[in-house]
Design goal:
- With 644 residues, this protein is α+β, with helices and mostly antiparallel strands.
- Among the domains are: 87 residues, Aminopeptidase N, middle-beta domain (Immunoglobulin-like), CATH 2.60.40; 81 residues, Immunoglobulin-like, CATH 2.60.40.3080.
- Helices cover 23% and strands 39% of the residues.
- It has eleven helices and 39 strands.
């Protein structure tokens, strides 16, 4: 989506270079998207009829970047979902339709508000493939940040488009909804010879007649209309490539002449990102074509399919836009409630990239990310108000908390299941090159991991807030730790966050990290530490979103080495409790003898060093006095049982 950095781009570059947090940059990304979408969500939407699906667009445009004007034709191939006499495309009222051709003949059309309605001479049956060609022209509306912008750089005209989510209809007739992707698109742009055009897919031909230059781009992957884009100015073209498996993928940059040095310098970083994301998150989605950057004059970036538009080759911005080629372009969120599937993943992948190139700085980055999310007590990743642009594009929730949700899924599932599950998600034939909802991600992760993560999504996706942990701990004389874990939640929508929790025990140069599966409040765990610890750090690697955690060291667990107690004595119950504190041996044999010295019961117990309370079954003993004998290597003792 749109990325809005303003003057902080340079500062953010410096911060990234110093391996500091990325949160401020993400805040600016979300701020720009909120601003840019304010008009499109509050005023506009897709008005096109839903009784047909577009399969192909052929767009031919005449563009002069010095003039804010478009003229051209759009041929649309479609298939009908029902029998119909008319279809309606989205198209702004300010654009003039000259004619519509159907089977080589002009046909009637009308212009309801926000629409182009085409009236066919005869009914078209359900499932029929057909096509129309629309000739149009005009000055697209000026929409604040703009879907169709004429500007200048270094005194040279530039014209570019940026249409997410409903801005395409401002400058070309299409189905502009988030429920329709054309299977392919051809784009032909004619401009004065002093300029070059950049667009989606592969440049097939570029020719000129001494006056105008014509570029023909072909794209053969499904594409949402808002991801179709072009830009025209006096571009310098930079050619790079990266080896992805057995494919040498072209990386083509269209930059301003004054930006050539900067893009040459920083393009190797996106080549590294391409290789990394291709390795971990499945093959680059448009592997048969290319990836590219196009410089434009808006303060940020936009993930146009195969060709991200950037104001500058900022390392974080490049990673974010590239990540969208998988999460946003190949698989597009099917609802504004699920915007985190685009923005949370793109944000996390930029953190993942920096984790790989500078692991030493990752804790500081995650700490800052966590602090930005938990600065307020509430808020869910699930968008509860899709009429509120600020809520949809909340940097704290859709971007940052969405990214942390991805991070915690990696923790809960483990690296192997997480990466395999995400790869299966983006390649799932139900949603690949289409639209997805959170349930689609959950389904794929569960299939791969064989884990039920319903509770996780209830807590972290639907639920609000975060936990604050209190960990009380003490050690016995065998260096086992008794750990009591409790939590309070910041918002009543979640009563308890069930999560694996890492605890690092330390003293001097000695340290040991244990992971407990915390499923209940005030849950007690025993862990063998191996040394006397003086400190416990809760979640040392920031795998769990939390805040205000407290670690409390309690007095050492009392009792002598091999302290044994048996109770209740006497008893009429079917069980007695054998209490063992600070056992030295790893196992013991418990035998019960009657007064005649006959063995009536025997069992072996594991005692790995933690304090134990073990139930001994005496239900088969008749009333009387018995001797319980404990044999644990060099330690032997006995206790009386009196059964009433």
């Amino acid at each position: 989506m749109r990325k809005f950095f303003l003057i902080l781009l340079i500062a953010c570059n410096k911060l990234v270079a110093q391996n500091e947090n990325l949160c401020k940059a993400v805040d600016e990304i979300a701020a720009g998207e909120r601003s840019a979408f304010q008009r499109t969500l509050s005023v506009n939407r897709s008005y096109a009829s839903s009784d047909f699906q577009v399969t192909y667009y052929r767009c031919a445009w005449d563009i002069d970047p010095a003039i804010r004007y478009i003229k051209g034709s759009v041929t649309s191939h479609f298939i009908t979902n029902s029998s119909l006499n008319t279809i309606s495309y989205d198209l702004d009222d300010q654009l003039t339709v000259d004619s519509v051709y159907y089977h080589g003949n002009k046909i009637a059309f009308s212009r309801p508000t926000h629409l182009l309605q085409i009236n066919f001479p005869a009914s078209i049956e359900t499932g029929q493939k057909d096509s129309v060609t629309i000739f149009y022209k005009g000055v697209p509306p000026n929409t604040a940040f703009g879907s169709f912008v004429q500007d200048a750089h270094n005194g040279i005209p530039v014209l570019w488009t940026l249409s997410e989510p409903y801005g395409s209809k401002d400058w070309w007739p299409c189905r502009n909804g988030l429920d329709d992707k054309a299977d392919s698109v051809d784009i032909i742009i004619t401009c004065p010879i002093a300029y070059r055009a950049s667009s989606n897919g592969l440049l097939i031909t570029e020719s000129d007649n001494g006056v105008v230059r014509t570029a023909f781009y072909k794209h053969r992957y499904p594409i949402a209309s808002y991801l179709v884009a072009f830009a025209v100015t006096n571009y310098k073209v930079l050619n790079h490539a990266v080896q992805l498996s057995n494919v040498n993928l072209p990386m083509i940059t269209y930059c301003y002449p004054e930006g050539e040095s900067l893009f040459q310098q920083h393009t190797p970083k996106v080549l590294q990102q391409l290789s990394l994301f291709h390795q971990y998150f499945s093959a680059y989605p448009f592997i048969n074509e290319r990836y590219g950057h196009t410089q434009f004059s808006w303060g940020g970036g936009m993930e146009h399919q195969t060709n991200s538009f950037l104001v500058s080759p900022d390392e974080n911005l490049m990673a974010h836009e590239l990540a969208h080629q998988w999460f946003g372009d190949k698989v597009t969120c099917g609802s504004w409630r699920d915007i985190w599937l685009n923005e949370g993943f793109a944000t996390y992948l930029s953190y993942f990239y920096f984790e790989q190139i500078n692991p030493a700085g990752q804790l500081n980055r995650l700490r800052s990310l966590s602090n930005s999310i938990t600065a307020l007590p509430g808020g869910s990743v699930w968008v509860d108000d899709t009429t509120n642009v600020g809520r949809i594009f909340s940097s704290r929730l859709s971007y940052n908390k969405g990214a942390y949700l991805v991070h915690m899924l990696r923790w809960v599932l483990g690296d192997s299941s997480f990466f395999r599950g995400v790869r299966q998600y983006v390649n799932d034939p139900r949603i690949a090159y289409g639209f997805a909802k959170t349930e689609d991600l959950k389904r794929n992760l569960e299939q791969v991991s064989n884990k039920d993560i319903t509770e996780f999504f209830n807590d972290w996706y639907r639920g609000q807030g975060y936990p604050s942990y209190t960990v009380k701990w003490a050690q016995n004389k065998n260096n086992w730790a008794k750990i009591t874990v409790s939590q309070v939640t910041s918002h009543p929508s979640v009563t308890f966050f069930e999560m694996p929790l890492a605890l690092k025990f330390k003293t001097g140069s000695l340290e040991k990290t244990v992971v407990i599966n915390n499923t209940l409040n005030n849950e007690i765990f025993w862990e063998e530490i191996g040394f006397k610890a003086d400190t416990v750090i809760i979640d040392p690697d920031y795998w769990v979103l939390s805040r205000n955690n407290v670690s409390v060291k309690e007095a050492g667990i009392p009792g002598d080495i091999n302290e044994v107690k048996l109770y209740p004595v006497p008893t009429s119950a079917n069980f007695v409790t054998l209490s063992i504190k600070n056992p030295v041996e790893r196992s013991m044999v418990v035998r019960i003898f009657n007064t005649a010295g006959q063995l009536v019961s025997q069992q072996k117990l594991n005692t790995p060093g933690r304090d134990e309370e073990i139930q001994i079954n005496i239900s088969k003993l008749s009333a009387g006095v018995y001797l319980l004998h404990i044999d644990a290597g060099n330690f032997k003792t006995a206790r009386h049982i009196i059964k009433k």
